[in-house]
Sequence to fold (296 residues):
Amino acid sequence: MSVTSINSSPKVTTTTLLEKKQRREPITSLTAYDYPSARLVDEAGIDVILVGDSLAMVMLGYDSTMPVTMDEMLHHVRAARRGVKHGMLVADMPYGSYQVSNEEGARNAARFVKEGGVEAVKLEGGEKRVEFIHRLLDAEIPVFGHIGLTPQSVHTMGGYKVQGKTLSAIEQLMRDAVALDRAGVCGMYLEGIPREVAAMITAEVKAPTIGIGAGPDCDGQVLVLHDILNLTFAPPAKFVRHYGDAAALISNAVKAFKHDVESGAYPADEESYHLPREARATIETIVDRKHAVGGR
Ligand code: KIV
Fold:
């Protein structure tokens, strides 16, 4: 089995993303949580490959992103790292890894760089993260912000709801975006906000914006890989577009295998190993002799 790479372009860096924004060339981003998916996403030429904390729900079956730990994230980050050569590999800082203290947050972000080999980390929140972002930049760790519908704030938001719908909420989002931009983020993810608000933020900030449920006017778009493949079990959000049906593919393949084993159709003779001709002849002679002796 082989997959052909279409990707001979240079490595994506923070500069590439800035240049793309300046040239108004859309930035592409997808999640990937393991070696095969990261490799395929990278070989398809996606710019930013995010080991999102959404893996808590998508890969580990939790009902929110909150429970996933640094060690669980790192396990997936290392696998993805082995698959990514061209895109920029980014790790999501999980809930609890940076909210308690900047010191602990910086230590955890450094683990992602040192043990996971990522090129940037992503964290949720705007104005209130400025000091922490400075701390990470001091440690030479590029940072992506994430504002709008921030899943780690599910309890304070009172559920997964579109954000930035009132004037005061829009003003706060603008303050958050500008604060992240001034703090020096290399990009910011805008999730679950009206397209008009995302457009205003995108026009206002130097850093590239990457939207998810934030409309078409962002500098780039991200989706969860398993969502576009129909491999998540929850009803899809409004912004999810299916580009394939991996659930049907896997389910049909598994059912066909079960059927073939149960009916004796698998494995066929061509799918079996055989002895070399002489060894086979010798074995047959031995078996024949045994039968002859047993027959006497
Ligand atoms: O965890 C994640 O997958 C994310 C993206 C949806 C932006 O944060």
